[in-house]
Amino acid sequence: MKYTATIGLETHVQLKTRTKMFCSCLLRTGDEPNTNVCPVCMGYPGALPVMNRQAVKFTVMAGIALGCDIPRHSAFDRKNYFYPDMAKDYQISQNGAPLCIGGGVEIALPDGSAKFIRINHIHLEEDAAKINHYARHSGIDFNRGGTPLMEIVGEPDLSSADETIAYLEALKELLVYVGVSDCNLEEGNMRSDVNISVRPEGQSALGTKVEIKNMNTFKGIHAAIEYEVARQIDLLTHGGAVIQETRRWDGELGETQSMRGKENAHDYRYFPEPDLVPVELDEETIARWRAEVPELPRARRARMMSEYGLPEYDAGVIAADKACADFFEKAARAAAPVPGKTVSNWFMTEVLRLVGEGGGDISSCALTPEALAELLRLLDAGTINGPTAKELLPELFEKGGMPKAIVDARGLGQVSDASALQALVDAAIAANPKSVADFKAGKKAAAGFFVGQVMKASKGKADPKLVGRLVAETLSNL
Amino acid sequence: MEFKDWTVASAAEAMRNGEISSVELVKALIAEKNARDGDIQAYLTFDEDGAIAAASEADSRRAAGDTSPLLGIPVAVKDLINVRGQPCTCASKILEGYVSPYDATVIARLKAAGAVCAGRVNMDEFAMGSSTENSAFKTTRNPHDLSRVPGGSSGGSAAAVAGGEAVCALGTDTGGSIRQPASFCGIVGFKPTYGRVSRYGVTAFASSLDQVGPMTKTVEDSAMLAQALFGADPHDGTTALNPVPDFASALRGASLKGLRIGLPREYFVPGTAPEVTEIVKAAIAKCADAGAEIVDVSLPHTEYAMAVYYIVAPAEASANLARFDGVRYGHRSEKSDDVMSLYCRSRAEGFGQEVKRRIILGTYVLSSGYYDAYYGRAQRVRTLIRRDFDEAFGKVDFLLTPVAPTPAFKVGELQDPLSMYLNDLFTIPASLAGLPAISVPAGATAAGLPVGVQFIAPSFADAPLLACARAFEDTMA
Asked: What's residue A458's pLDDT?
């Protein structure tokens, strides 16, 4: 009997606002515990929540990017339950009227086809504090408590661990692109509750689902899904039944374990949050926010391929990071008539290498798109040669400035005068009879030696192509 | 001037004229408190040094030319309003030892105005009650008859002012907790329109109903305090953006002449003590004599108000009081060995009976399967109650009603929770509708027990309401 797996995710994404969801405490990581706190996020008597507009805006922008409908009216509710990481012992969340409805994202299947994974809704809530467990006690750090959390509730359209990871990758790329979250998995920016069920192939009714909560890494999620699907199939194959429960993934043992007894079905007793007025969005606001949603990665890749003549691979690498894509496009447009492919070659092999070595990102280097464009135009026009361009780039990267000014100031212009170069070729040949003998004996590589000598004599400024031709002609006439 | 005769207005003027300093006034208050509070039991704590220091600062500000109207005026604070560095017990064991790390907005505004926070007064635990008998610490007495309750939940506030051991006080009103004790103690108690005064720093009982308000000897005094307290607060998303009225000019030339005053027939029913009915009738007559037009109106859904309130308020309270769990502050049971028992024992040990009762009731009406029948339905009926008022205000300017069905009852007299709840019959509807309402002294029973009358106004008509109350107060002079 074959089985089909059904997977649905609830993904919690921490928004990168400056302050918390309901108070003006700063959102920071790495600080001493309980230092970015106030009466509101600590749930002190008399404290009241106040809405973070930026969090609402980010959620709506994410919804727009994901193709969701944005209702004009949205409201908050209290989700009541007791746990030490809950400052108020209720969480302010959204139950009946979330900020975004519907939407979805397309993923690429291994066979090249595409699959659309639907989203049920996206809502906004506050994150809980962080509990650290020690040998004999637990400590609660409320620095994280109150972080704006966007929850993306997906429909159970996924059928495998691979599809699930593709979905998460697609979400991550989109959310980082739109600029609403860093989606840094190690820092817990993006955590998912994974719901898994299996059913005999052909059966339409879904099987009993199991929930694995609060998973971070994609690797862990992949492994957990594969394990759990296998576990459920094994159970059913041997005549057992899957129990609806919450399980936890033990990465070390490589298995899911029942949390029965620890996580009872909660009655959250949702009711409208009386301390917050509903969110009423007008057309103008939504239009304004829509305009701030950047061109999304897929569309951008496609357009860059057609506009700049880039192959898919180049477009993929460059468009992966919005800042890089912005830089590249500025440079490519300014570099005309230099072909886009030339710009992308230089950008990918030279500029991105320097960025990687420097440890920063494209926005922190001194190189400007205009400088790169000018450099490539100078090269294309023959004003400088390749080696000179390669030499100048790191300097522009570190210190900024424009290449033409440097070339003029230091006289780095390419030497293309054939008679001047011929003189250097003759001199090199005269000075190295042994190499001439090698060449005549069949060592063709000796020609390269002479090219090198001429380049050296010209202090690197000779046109290497011209030198190569002159060396080849001269040697062949010997 | 005897201390008990000072009002906010007269004290402010005397201080302006240099007749008395704030330090002298506060010292006199402390002396009265020490002399009388043994009997009245209004105060829970009093930072005497702190109050005198604040008074001294007020005197310095005055010497430097500051002319703020409330400069140097001592204000007693109901013990659920956070004042930085002071306890805030909410009259509950669960907050014993808790010291506020911040000022409520109302306190910050009073301090900015130069007022002096002078003492923390008793209340029903977490504002749940109508007699102040639910305090975990002491039972406050009605200064007019020490065997009787001062009303609740702001009983300490009312008793301190009525008993001559405070010039004025802050109270809070959720279903009548300012107005009913004001009536029982013979003082003025004003509940503003919901949203007029910030709730930030005021321990929440029912979020959609709670309002802070002044409890004073005169309407003018209430207006002076309201002037400092009113206004939108970025810390409270439920405060209204309406501009703050100029109360002083609203009160100038206040007159009942030509006002249309409605008597909702559902508030004039058998069950109200005969002496209360008599006093309210006399008040109505005074209004008519002063030129008001008395109009019969109906608020047909009044009979459902109690049920709506005792579903909505406990529901919100059950969530608002969840934070008292022994984890971050307040009482933590020593008998617990895991998280669940820490919660259960701390709360069992810390909360009083009435609080537990309402938390359980509130949890029940929100629970799965019951939400629609109780909480959902109650909120919809609340809209109908609100509409009754809107319609009535199409015909009249204000409503006049009794405040409570009886005058102050004896300590220990009402044992059954439901009979205690009936005290709120006339005050609850205006709370549900978010309307401004005020209790003004209207007379006393043969035994000398005060009885007040309630005026209710349309939303945001706080200034006209105070003007009407002021005019009525004149007829009583």
From this structure: 86
A86 secondary structure, DSSP code? -
In total, chain B counts a number of residues equal to: 477
> In A, which residues are within 8 Å of B234 by CB distance?
50
| pLDDT for A362 | 87
Q: DSSP for A15-58?
A: ---SB-SSS--B--SSSPTT-S--TTTTT-TT------HHHHHH
ipTM tops 0.85: yes
Contact in structure between B208 and B378 (CB atoms under 8 Å): no
CA-to-CA distance for B346 and A441, rounded, in angstroms? 98
Where in chain B are the domains?
Answer: 3-251, 260-301+384-436+446-476, 307-373
Q: What is the pLDDT of residues A217-265, one digit of tens each?
A: 999 999 999 999 999 999 999 999 999 999 999 989 999 999 865 456 6
Hey, what CATH class is B3-251 in?
alpha beta
Question: What value does the mean pLDDT take over residues A121-130?
Answer: 97
For A392-404, what is the mean pLDDT? Answer: 89
b/e for B158-176, b at 16 or more Cβ within 10 A?
bbbbbbbbbbbbbbbbbbb
The topology (CATH level 3) of A418-476 is Arc Repressor Mutant, subunit A (1.10.10)
Confidence at residue B158, expressed as pLDDT on a 0 to 100 scale: 98
Q: Is A48 on the interface with B (CB under 8 A)?
A: yes
* Active-site option among B153, B183, B346, B439: B153
Nearest to A427 by CA among A392, A399, A456: A456
The whole-angstrom separation of Cα B71 and Cα B59 is: 8
- Quick check: A88 and B323 CB within 8 A? yes
User: Which residue of A23, A41, A51, A82 to mutate against B (max B Cβ within 10 Å)?
Assistant: A82
Give the pLDDT of residue A263: 52
Interface of B with A (CB under 8 A): 80-82, 88, 90, 95, 98, 101-102, 104, 199-204, 207-208, 234-238, 315-316, 318-319, 322-325, 327-329, 339, 343, 363, 366-368, 371, 375
pLDDT, tens only, A179-196: 999 999 988 999 999 999
pLDDT the model gives residue A280: 97
Here the tokens at position A474 are 């001269």
For the residues A100-121, what does the mean pLDDT come to?
94
Closest alpha carbon within chain B to A142: B328
Contact flag A46-B375 (C-beta cutoff 8 Å):
no
Interface contact B323-A78, CB threshold 8 A = no
Is the Cβ pair B88, A46 closer than 8 Å?
A: yes
Q: Which two tokens stand for residue A107?
A: 């993923």
Q: Look up residue A48 and give its two tokens.
A: 């009241």
Q: Residue B64: in which H helix or E strand, if any?
A: none
CB contact under 8 A, A46 and B204: yes
CA B222 to chain CA centroid, nearest Å: 12
Measure CB to CB from residue A269 to each of B200, B235, B366 and give the nearest one. B366
Pick from B88, B202, B322: CB nearest A80: B322
Residues of chain B with pLDDT under 50: none
The residues, ordered by sequence, that sit 6+ positions from B437 with a Cβ below 8 Å of its Cβ are B179, B190, B191, B427, B430, B431, B454, B455, B456, B457, B465
Strands B398-402 and B260-264: parallel
**Strand locations in B180-302 (E):** 188-191, 211-216, 260-264, 293-297
B250 alpha-carbon distance from chain centroid: 22
Neighbours of B195 (CB within 10 A): 19
B208 is catalytic: no
Of B49, B35, B71, the residue nearest B164 (C-alpha): B35
Among the listed ranges A149-153, A338-342, B225-229, which one has the minimum average pLDDT value? A338-342
Per-residue model confidence (pLDDT) at position B236: 98
Which positions ≥6 away from A48 have C-beta within 8 Å? A40, A275, B199, B200, B204, B235, B236, B237, B238
